[in-house]
# Entry
Amino acid sequence: MEHTKSFSKKKQFFVFTSAGKPVWTRYGDETDLTTFIGSVTAILYNFQQYYRGEQDTLRFIKTKDVNIVFLCTQALYYVCVCKNNETIESIYQQLGMLHSKVISTLTNNITTMLISRPNYDARNLMGGTHSSLDCMIKTTARCLHFIKGFGPSRMPLNQRNMIASIFKNNIHSDVVYGFVMTTNYVIYRYTRKNVGLHHIDAALLSNLITSYISLRSTMSWTPICLPHFSDEGFLYTWVTLMQESNIFIVLLSDNASAFKELKTCGNAIEAELESMKLVVEESIACMPHPVYTFDVKEVNHFVYFSKYYDQFVMSGTHPANFVHLPELPKEHYQELMIRYNQAHSFSEYAEYYKGNYTKVDVYRNELVVCIRNQEYELLASMSSIIPINTCVQICSQLCKTLKQEEPNLFIPK
Amino acid sequence: MRGSAISSLFVFNPTLKPLSEHPTEDEYKSCKLIYYYPENAPLFEQHTHVGLAEGMCMFVQQFSDNPLESIHTEKHTHILQQCEPNIWLCIVLNHGDSPSESFIRQQDLETHPHVLKAIVDNYYRNFYLFHGPLTNFRYPEDFPHLKNLLSDYTKIFDEDQPKRTELFEGFAYCPLDRKSYMNVMYGLSQISFTHTDVLHTMLIYDGYIVNTSMPQQGSLLVYSYLARDKNWRRLIDMKRDLNPNACQYGRIAEYPKKGFVYGKNSAGIIVPTVYLPDIPPCKMLLWVQENMQLVLLMKNQEVPEETIEVIRNSLHELCPDIIKTIQSQYQRVLNSEDSFKFLYFNNMNLAIKQSSKLNPIDDQLYRLILTVSAQMRDSTQKYDSLVKTIVRTNIAWVMAVKVLDSREIYFVLPPSTAPVNKVEEEIVKFANGYFHTIFTGL
# Structure
């Protein structure tokens, strides 16, 4: 049967309503999985009511080689059956992003509708989103779940300030967010005063640009819901791809009738950016960052997250970009993610972290460091033969370099 | 696992069928269920839980050839294990309500696969110790008796489970030098030589194992029951009456200053049959004298009173010397205080050494060390193994070292702002002195 083929996949996702109606599945046809989804819904219900008078929620199920993780929202349920070695937290994050993507496509009105009409068939509403959902899963799986930020491209501060000036000179009051970005990286972001940008919203926008090829062929006007801005309605996105380039200018407005204004604003920004196109392309071309560019020879890989900027930088690859430099083969990156998770894990419990945390894990073939404090989080990989005192010095030097380099690494607030 | 009470526990055999000619649906459901705790749970709930457990086992078969191990909800952890052919045991642990915005929960620090497995194994093995395999109980004639035994046993298990404080299942070895050890061995061999009915012996002094001739798993079972974590004191406090028809776990006579606990004593002749892995069922005698416990496993299924008296006379003669040999060494080591907090565990011979300063281990530190240990165990199964780790949290520094994949050593220092290399230096200095006979790789 078709569904048994999809069960043999290494990582399978199911989205369905609380009434057991399939909404989306990563592999196979939702229709073929109706019986299976029905049984999963029954399982979830039984565990919710396992003891009479007590409400509970199923989180995950384990066998020796499979983890099945559940995310239950008000009206939609998400399940992942994972046979590779990803951590439970990482899988849960992917489910969370799937949910964010569904809300991004339909707004939270889908929840209201499904609560009032539990038997509603929501499959058609998600039509055409398969590749974007799949892309979202792949990108999220490459992220560290505890890094709550996005990873911009590196650019000298003065050049980024020039882009900021261009935006400042041309922005329209209807614009909530403005971006100069590629499918993988954010180069510059503008936000309206007193409006923040949540990293999940940034990821959703990036996913939109990446997944819909049609946005690259012509100037587009498309709705998107950014749940952390507001999950009740859409923002309207004006997107254009600069000529002979892979640089997008993206403007978002909460005014559905602001197409003309955003078009004018966007064209003006594009015209002024034309003179900086080479500079911008240079900043993209140097991504991902080779580790040697940070002047610390002994480090094989690092991830640095600045809490002030809410942004991160990573060497060797980037979660949004599936390119791996020779210094970081893909298989090793997957192993390293698991090791970073392990190094970071204790600090996720309030009883063990009060603003200062260090962990050094020494494997036979690698040494992994995690430093977490109120300013930043650093995870680094080095050779296992490096003594701990040398490792401390290296990390200290790396942090110093990165701190100094922050204005060029990250987009200013 | 500390602190988590049992919400429910049940044993079932999905292959059992009702015996009546036209069984009802309820009869089908009831006959599968061998035992359910708590017994006052509504029948409907009991049947649902068994059905759900069966269903979950079948559900995961669609994705994995390996059996279902555990189910984690926000408030509970369900552990499922097939303990014998067609017999499943399910234990549901209650973690209480700890609302959290994030996915992780505090219980995740304690619900590692090996910890959950140990809980189920512990339940099963301690029942097995006194009553043998569940498959020995014939369906349906022996099942009411089995149910009574499980009922009696499970109540004790439920009270006992959250009080278990040890991190590792192993042996605390008695500190004896070579000469003293050989003297003790001589004494024990005299007993075995004189009494050919004695199949195996185990000698324990104040909760520390001195010697055992049993295979490792059997030794661990008996040692855990009688000695680990001073368990004999818990057994005495239980004050369970000596009912030969009830579950024998925890039913012991008062510990005399010198005499038999299992054997002939003021309560009569009590010689339980014990079932141990790799050994045929045998009778167990337990002789106590001062801080010593001497276990004798007898070959024969019957141990007459005369045999017990003959053994008593031998032990009167031989034990004082054994105790004297051990006592002087033991007191010397006991009175010395370790300068560091550490915990040592050897996965091969299951030796545990916990420094005097690390006793007792508070709950937060317990969870920390437990999770570090789980990370070290986990890594050997997947990638290149984790051999050393140093972690600073706000409650302590912990450094763990794994030596030759079998030994784990944990060092604990108070929290401080010292850099990690300074902490490591301090620990290495201590370790190179204290563990000088072991290659630690430090």
Observations:
- DSSP finds twelve helices and 15 strands in chain A.
- Chain A touches chain B through 58 residues (CB under 8 Å).
